[in-house]
Amino acid sequence: MLTLQVIGRELQGEVVLLTLAHSEGIDLPVFSAGAHIDLHLTADLVRPYSLCGDPKNRQHYQLGILKDSKSQGGSLAAHALNVGDRIQVSDPRNLFALNGEASHSLLIGGGIGITPMLAMAAELHAAGRSFGLHYCARTRDRAAFIPQLEQSPYADRVQMHFSDAQRLNLAAVLSDVPANTHVYTCGPTRLMEAITEQATRHGYRPEQVHQECFSAEVQTGGAAFEVFAATSGITVQVLENQSIVEALALAGLKVCVSCKQGICGSCLTDVLEGEPDHRDSYLTDEEKADGDQILLCCSRAKSARLVIDL
């Protein structure tokens, strides 16, 4: 865990750009493009945000955070931060890394989903690798990072698409690329589903399409079941409209959670017995089929009892 200080705050439309650094100027832990950090906004409010700065710069981290009207408190608390405030953050974690063998990387960011793409573009440009970046937003005047993109050393590889002007033509973008192109996308669910569908039509293999969700529709209801936390020796009943995390908390066992939507993986736990009912967007289909891990924030059980390593 790091304690960092807000040294910069800039509002771009509905997005706040926060710059965090160590108060003594100490170099920060290395990160690679696609990584995120968890912001510990309060004792019980932890949220993951993508790092959008240049990975080569170890003096500070940068985050772009949208003020979300449907926020459960995370984005509102982040927007309330001011220069001089101190905040605890996790070390960087990367669940959305670039593939080093790709002949070309196609970066597609929708709305606030542009944030990890900024770090990816900086890393690819510094390495002299082939890439293109497409930024989709509703309108130019509400979009963040436009000056940064237009003034970047890779500006000639950037194309912007606005809903009120020229929309993204996915079929054209996905077909006009070299062999072994890898696609990276982050943004609204509809955009990512459309990209996956079009990529499949154009013959992309599943391993060539990489996605990072920043929100997900999760159905957490279902029949009640029992959970035994083997290490702690605690047994709980998880009710129909209750998560495993909530049931364990009532029994005095607190689980570290961040996104609460099965996206970030912070509550990933090994399953020792029983059959999970996976509701997350974090595990791959193969990992879900193995049945030996579970995201406690949203997933449930198909069996009457689960034994977890907690």
From TrEMBL:
SUPFAM superfamilies membership: 2Fe-2S ferredoxin-like, Ferredoxin reductase-like, C-terminal NADP-linked domain, Riboflavin synthase domain-like
Protein's name in the database: PDR/VanB family oxidoreductase
Domain FAD-binding FR-type: from-to ranges: 1-99
Domain named 2Fe-2S ferredoxin-type: residues: 225-310
Organism: Silvania confinis
GO MF term (any one): oxidoreductase activity
Pfam families the record matches: Fer2
Entry keyword set: 2Fe-2S, Flavoprotein, Iron, Iron-sulfur, Metal-binding, Oxidoreductase
Alphabetical list of InterPro entries matching this protein: 2Fe-2S_ferredoxin-like_sf, 2Fe-2S_ferredoxin-type, 2Fe2S_fd_BS, Beta-grasp_dom_sf, FAD-bd_FR_type, FNR_nucleotide-bd, MRET, Riboflavin_synthase-like_b-brl
Entries under CDD domains matching the protein: fer2, PDR_like
